[in-house]
Amino acid sequence: MKIRVIVERRMSPVSTPYINEFDLDVEESANVISVLMEIRRNPVTVSGEKVAPVSFECSCLEEVCGACTMNINGKARQACSALVKDLGSKIYLSPLRKFPVLRDLIVDRKRIFEGLRRVKAWIPIDGTHGLGPGPKVSEKTQRIGYKLSRCMSCGVCMEACPQVNDRSNFIGPAVIAQVLLFNLHPTGAMIKEDRLEALMDEGGISECGNAQNCVKACPKQVPLTFSIAKLNRDTLFYSIKRLLDS
Amino acid sequence: MSSGCEVIVVGGGLAGLMATIVACENNLRVKLFTLLPAKRSHSVCAQGGINASVNTKGEGDSPEIHFYETVYGGDFLANQPPVKAMCENAPNIVYLLDRMGVMFNRTPEGFLDFRRFGGTQYHRTAFAGATTGQQILYALDEQVRRFESSGLVKKYTGWEFLRAVIDDDNICRGIVAGNIHTQEIEYFKADAVVIATGGLGMIFGKSTNSVICTGSAQSILYKQGVKYANGEFIQVHPTAIAGGDKLRLISESVRGEGGRIWTYKDGKPWYFLEEKYPKYGNLVPRDIASREIFNVCVNMGLGIDGKNQVYLDVTHIDRQTLEYKLGGVLEIYEKFMGEDPYTKPMKVFPAVHYTMGGLWVDYNQMTNIPGLFAAGECEYQYHGANRLGANSLLSCIHGGMVVGKKIPEYLKGLDKSCADIGENLFEREKKSVLSKFERYKSLKGKENPYHLHKELGELMTENVTVIRYNDKLKMTIEKIKELKERFNKIDILDNSDFGNQTLFYVNQLANMLDLALVITKGALLRNESRGSHYKPEFPQRDDENFLKTTIAIYDEKNDEPVISYEEVDTSLIKPVTRKYD
Ligand SMILES: Cc1cc2nc3c(=O)[nH]c(=O)nc-3n(C[C@H](O)[C@H](O)[C@H](O)COP(=O)(O)OP(=O)(O)OC[C@H]3O[C@@H](n4cnc5c(N)ncnc54)[C@H](O)[C@@H]3O)c2cc1C
Ligand code: SF4
Ligand code: FES
Q1: What is the mean pLDDT of chain B?
Q2: Is the domain of A97 the same as that of A126?
């Protein structure tokens, strides 16, 4: 199958972007990562120029690690599960826009992890010593929790969200959904208020403009808008309670 | 001992994260080095589950039986005391993960659910849908983030381990690492270093592993004088799907939940595993299942559509059960093969999956270099000649726990801290890495490094996997040496000084070549069949000569491994013949 791959490149965070185009003949089953790997084996552009191989991030190649996320024909998604046969003969690759570019298709998604830290996305256990089984969890809670816990911090939902931009410091849908995950858990709920406070801070849940792009874009069907709606209520109740208690 | 120095953990998979957590609980400061954010480590790929004999199904399972089956499944090559300790700790580990909020599947009453895996008759495997590794990795990552918040952990994400700093008394004092984006190369001091860098599937080109599993760190250490054990024991998983870039795993849990392997014989479905192994059926250990599938396809020519593939069939199981218990795996099949596994049997073939061999460690997880520890898939301790499914996540976490507890003991006995060591040593080690990288940068030959790697992978997959012949192994060693020669003629392709992936890749390639030699030479010299290592010329297990751990030590003069053997501690269970029929 003959394809043309057009890559938006940049040699460093401060250098100017430019375009390289490559022609390739690949197998039906190829995905965008295997195409980029093929380019590394013969990094020559359509005009016959030998160039440095394109830098890109990937690891699992089965859409669970989130590393390979980029814009493919204008849509943010995982390159490893983007099959060439579904993309047409022209494939346009560019880095995610909502995160600082490091080089070529690699961006720095540190802010997602910082967000997780801000909302204390963890269960506050006493320690790793033997304390017997955890609290019982119903099958129903497990099913919701499991859906939320599949978020791979890929950033697609943030790329899709109009509220995540240069002018805002919106924490983003993914991190909000993680708050719900930890607030659902019996032990996690013990610091529920801390998480709600963090969400009520600057850049928190009130930044959400309800565009609902995130939930459509998420490759793992994380119930994002459901989580945001639920936490909107929880933060509201919490602020009323806080007011009454003060 | 005067403190001020810290612990370095290299690797943010299950093993590295667990080591970090326990070290922090002991009030040690940790610098955590990873290639990608820890959350993207290879452990995320584990699908099936984690073993622990909790016996919630009233089957009479116990840690003793788990211990026996692990040793037996490993064809008696593992030292037994650490395996026993691991199996005894397993219920605690699963409870701990449960407390950390891992979304394990539940029984209707809300208890942890367990499924069956290979090499056992018991329901012993706890699971979170079909993305167990992901769920556990995230839980540990979250706990580490908590320690990061409290200032005990400092993360060095995107810093690749390039060399250990070992002083003239042969004690480990830190590491040299390079930032894969900015390309800085720097040294970091520590009183204890933990290596938890995972597997090495990339040596075989395509495998079920993530592409960052190159074994590069292990190889570097082997060349620095760390013993490497049982390198030839490479697990080939029976059920993976073919792909141009990767062989994607279809987890053993699919058979644990009732999936059946078959092909056509005389026009009729033939369930060859069930026929030959009535007791274990589709859940015989991986080495056996892989050899049988290989035999049916390659020797008997009975693969589906005349290709090297057999059916893995779940179409008889109802959709709801499949979705709840196996959704994640079936989704992978659907996504990459474009066929619906709920209604059409999946097509699978064996693929390189796991290394039982790795850095040699003692029962405290310490290598032969004091202060240098190892845990997880990169070390050799728990699985002998063949690993049972769902025992790896367990060994990673258990090993990480042991390290975290043993480091404080080691530090107590240390008479000099790394702070008391002069800068000279560190500068010297940094310089040696810098000059190596300078040499790579000057490589302007004709060979494409990515292509060279592909050749290595094909060579290894062809000759050093399911069936091994001595003449082919000898030829493979010669070929690897040729590749090492050709390495000197590669073209570095990229001269930039920011985010230059090829530069780091070339270094990994050099390391993969060295480790490939260790694997192949170990295989050549082991003239018997045991676990994953099978030679038709020597089809029997030979305890008299080979109930021994293979030890590879780097010989600088000949640029080759020297192989010797060490006794195996079989003090708890007497070796017997391993049979599953
Ligand atoms: C597809 C698949 C499914 C599996 N399913 C199961 C299962 O169901 N049950 C089970 O028990 N086992 C399973 N396994 C095996 C198991 O997943 C692995 O053995 C285990 O996750 C390894 O964990 P680890 O902590 O040792 O290393 P990894 O998770 O591989 O982590 C290695 C870490 O080291 C870092 N690193 C590597 N090299 C360097 C370097 N040079 N410098 C700095 N950092 C470095 C990486 O960034 C990473 O953080 C499966 C394996 C595969 C391939
Ligand atoms: S919620 Fe979905 S899109 Fe957003 S980071 Fe998580 S997996 Fe990616
Ligand atoms: S490489 Fe992991 S999601 Fe694509």
Answers
A1: 96
A2: no
Q: How far apart are CA B242 and CA B351, in angstroms?
A: 9
Q: Is the pTM of this model over 0.80?
A: yes
Q: Is the pLDDT of residue B388 over 80?
A: yes
pLDDT tens digits, one per residue of B448-499:
999 999 999 999 999 999 999 999 999 999 999 999 999 999 999 999 999 9
pLDDT at A15: 95
Domain boundary among A107, A133, A163: A107
Runs of H (alpha helix) within B59-212:
63-73, 80-99, 132-149
What element of type H or E holds B21? helix B14-25
CATH among 3.90.700.10, 3.40.50.2300, 3.90.1570.10, 3.40.47.10 for B250-353: 3.90.700.10
Instruction: Name which of B112, B501, B506 to mutate to probe chain A: the one with the most chain A Cβ atoms within 10 A of its Cβ.
Output: B501
The span from the CA of A81 to the CA of A99, in Å, is 21
Instruction: Report the pLDDT value the prediction gives residue B4, as an integer from 0 to 100.
Output: 57
Is A19 an 8 Å CB contact of chain B? no
pLDDT tens-digit map of B264-288: 999 999 999 999 999 999 999 999 9
Residue B221 in contact with residue B372, Cβ under 8 Å?
yes
Is B530 noted as a catalytic residue in this protein?
Answer: no
Sign of CA dihedral A177, A181, A187, A189: positive
Q: How many angstroms separate the CA atoms of B287 and B292, rounded?
A: 9
Q: How confident is the model at residue B514 (pLDDT cuts 50, 70, 90)?
A: very high
B149 CB near a chain A CB, below 8 Å? Answer: yes
Together in a domain, A72 and A14: yes
**Which residue bears the tokens 């985010």?**
B499
- Cα–Cα dist B204/B211, whole Å: 11
CA distance, residue A209 to nearest chain B CA (Å): 28
Q: Which of B425, B14, B450 is nearest to B190 (CA)?
A: B425
Instruction: Provide the H-helix boundaries in B78-223.
Output: 80-99, 132-149, 216-223
The residues in B 484-523 lying below 8 A from A, measured between CB atoms, are 493-496, 498-502
Q: Is the ipTM of this complex over 0.95?
A: yes
3-state SS, residue B62: coil
Rounded Cα–Cα distance for residues B117 and B238 (Å): 13
Q: Which atom of ligand 2 sits closest to the CA of residue A158?
A: 4
The answer, for B139 touching chain A at a CB cutoff of 8 Å, is: yes
Same domain, A118 and A193: yes
How far apart CA A115 and CA B115 sit, in angstroms, is 35
pLDDT confidence of residue A58: 98
Indicate the pLDDT class of residue A105, thresholds 50, 70 and 90: very high
H or E stretch covering B349: strand B346-355
Q: Which of A107, A125, A145 is the last residue of a domain?
A: A107
Give the chain B residue nearest A85 (alpha carbons): B338
Domain count of chain A? Answer: 2
Q: Output the ligand 2 site: residues, CB below 6 A.
A: A 151-157, 174, 177, 218, 220, 222, 224
- B538-548 confidence digits (pLDDT tens): 999 999 999 99
The model's confidence at residue B2, banded by pLDDT at 50, 70 and 90, is: very low
Q: What is the dihedral of CA B390, B396, B397, B402, to 10 degrees?
A: 140
User: Using the 8-state DSSP alphabet, how is residue B76 labeled?
Assistant: T
- Asked if A117 contacts A29 with a C-beta cutoff of 8 angstroms, the reply is no
* pLDDT above 70 coverage of chain B, percent: 99
Q: Which one of the ligands is nearest to B390 CA? A: 1
Residues near B579 by Cβ (< 8 Å), separated by ≥ 6?
A: none
Range of the structural domain that residue A133 is part of: 110-245
